[in-house]
Amino acid sequence: MGTGTGTGTNVEGAVTAVSSNGEYSFTKPNRESITLLAGLGVEGDVHAGVTVKHRSRVAQDPTQPNLRQVHLIHEELFTEVAEQGYEVVPGALGENITTRGIDLLGLPTGTLLRIGDEAVLEVTGLRNPCVQIDGYQDGLLKQVVFRDEDGALVRKAGIMTVVLTGGPVRPGDAIKAELPTGPHRPLERV
């Protein structure tokens, strides 16, 4: 997509799984559906809230706004890491929504994701994967965060969003991305 001006082009994909967990745990069990709550996140999920809920962020400043309400990962990543011998399934890396067919990592900051009939998310940035990923499968962290040949840090563990409009989300729901107007602002870690 480059650094040009957004064109308002729609990008489409689909939800392949939804996951949530009311307790602090690295993985999140798959559900038949989740309900997104405006300004909060996933109903009943430990990371839902107006202010930060991830333990590392709470330790820094518990009053920070929660820009990490809903975590999305593209299912294509699972195929990519499988080629290196890792078995990853939906919810295993703590995401709430697993997608297919949409280039999440290529979306600019401020993209709106319309999911199903009601829900609207705003993309805030990249997930910053942590060492807990190696606790799930040793060596996996280096598959999802690394330096490219130019020395730039590459993060592939999904994107973070906030909920603008709530609603139910289920596997099979369509996702339509609406790119913001103006210059493309690449995703940075949040």
UniProtKB/TrEMBL annotation:
It comes from the Bacteria. Gene3D superfamilies: PK beta-barrel domain-like. Residues 28-178 form the MOSC domain. This is MOSC domain-containing protein.
